[in-house]
Records
---
Amino acid sequence: MKNFCLHDWTDFDRTGKRHCRKSGCNFVSHKDAIVTETPIDYLAPDWVNYEKVHCWRNHINDRIKGMWNTFTADQKAAIAISARELANAEEWS
Ligand SMILES: [Zn+2]
């Protein structure tokens, strides 16, 4: 079974799992999976303005920003999720 997909997922069901909404994709999250949502702005990110905290765009370096329009939507989503995981791990005190 796949342990990840890039589609939209349902909310948690009664057993604490999430399911992929896309027909044909049978992804179901593990009960304790930490789910990182795809940032909504991944297709055309604003590289000028940033959120104060936990901003995924802060974790994209300039070289990748310069190449952004050459990536497919799936590649953009994968990179954005990876950056968001880093952003979510930021510790603010
Ligand atoms: Zn899926």
---
Amino acid sequence: MKHRRAETDGDFYVSPTSDRRQRVKNVRTPFTVVIIFLSILTACSNNTLAVQGWRSPTDEELKSGWRNESDNRYTTVKGDFNGDGVIDEATLLARTDGSGFGIFVRLSRGDRSYEIYSLDEISDPKMISTMGIKKAPPGIYKTVCGKNYIDCQKGEPSEIHIKNEAIEYFKFESAGSLFYWDAASNSFKRIWISD
Ligand SMILES: [Ca+2]
């Protein structure tokens, strides 16, 4: 049986630290490079992922019982996403003005500096109660079309080999996708693995 693709908040914006918002990408496409470079941190002394205009989720936002199975309530993933031997971090953050939430990554860049990437943003703040992230190990993953949930579109693979640790981004009991580092394009990519 065919299924609908996951509902996500389609458009998102680069540089939440700036008032100059810029529409950059629609993430409804099934196999898309979606990651937007935000800034370079030249110092690595600060090990926390902090983005101006964003905050950590509150206990109230994370109170759902399904999060009890995770020590960090499915808000943080630590792993070496780009395979350089340095641990990176993905974090669920909410906008301080209450207008939404998103996923950010602090990625090591080999020269002891870090880059911050925005992986996704959803403008409905209530949806944060249903969204989480967890680590995905390296391996071969079938895509939603590889599982015959939907037809593969032109250029869309039925499976993909992910070489480093990755980030599974999911809606509780619903859709899931993977964000993984693609060395060839020097960026993160996203692929849907369930629907
Ligand atoms: Ca790394």
